[in-house]
């Protein structure tokens, strides 16, 4: 398959995802794509870290590792990849003018390739999945990151290929920073495995994990409630 065929396929998937015809879904997606919607989730992840680490050295190690991951993603993407590739967003592409729909006049600045929204979501989802090691938590975090990613083609601000590369890059950075975290953590702690029905094997309380899960679910309910009100 040559480049032209791949670009045609990419545009076809974009048009299949692009919204603008369903008032409920449009509002739902607009709420999900907003970073403000997920502030309670970020706060609950911070709560999980603080509650389950016994000193500030370990807490700051995790916070610093996550910050490093986000810095790598955004620094690489905004500082190097996007200016170098300079791919216009679908809504701004001459080939797609009048074809891609702007949902409630939603726009995004800058270039399209690749999706920072997606990469940032996958950094958080994959890193915390590796950190916490709970199946239900991991599945929900990955599902969350995928849903957040899919809002971007729906809104017409990213191609599916932008999202796919964001997923791969964000996941790769998450794995990289996790092993960096693990290497530094081992230096001042030997408590890597917990044997308890109340904790994961990395020492995270199931009760505190449930708090994060509840916040995540309630955030989706909030988005749905706002969408209902918009009808």
TrEMBL record:
One of the Pfam families matching this protein, by short name: PAP2
Record-linked SUPFAM superfamilies: Acid phosphatase/Vanadium-dependent haloperoxidase
Domain of life: Bacteria
Protein name: Undecaprenyl-diphosphatase
InterPro entries: PAP2/HPO (IPR000326), PAP2/HPO_sf (IPR036938)
């Amino acid at each position: 398959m040559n480049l032209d065929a791949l670009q045609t396929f990419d545009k076809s998937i974009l048009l299949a995802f692009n919204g603008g015809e369903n008032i409920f879904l449009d509002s739902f997606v607009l709420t999900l794509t907003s970073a403000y919607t997920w502030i309670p989730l970020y706060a609950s992840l911070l709560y999980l870290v603080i509650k389950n680490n016994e000193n500030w050295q370990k807490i700051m190690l995790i916070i610093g590792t996550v910050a490093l991951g986000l810095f790598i993603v955004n620094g690489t993407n905004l500082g190097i990849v996007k200016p170098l590739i300079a791919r216009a967003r679908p809504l701004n592409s001459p080939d797609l003018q009048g074809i891609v729909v702007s949902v409630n006049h939603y726009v995004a600045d800058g270039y399209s390739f690749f999706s920072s929204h997606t990469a940032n979501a996958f950094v958080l989802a994959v890193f915390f999945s590796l950190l916490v090691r709970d199946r239900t938590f991991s599945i929900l975090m990955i599902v969350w990151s995928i849903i957040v990613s899919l809002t971007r083609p729906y809104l017409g601000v990213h191609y599916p290929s932008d999202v796919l590369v964001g997923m791969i890059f964000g996941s790769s950075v998450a794995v990289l920073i996790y092993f960096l975290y693990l290497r530094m953590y081992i230096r001042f702690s030997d408590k890597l495995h917990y044997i308890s029905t109340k904790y994961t094997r990395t020492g995270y309380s199931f009760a505190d994990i449930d708090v994060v899960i509840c916040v995540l679910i309630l955030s989706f309910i909030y988005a749905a409630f706002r969408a209902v009100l918009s009808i």
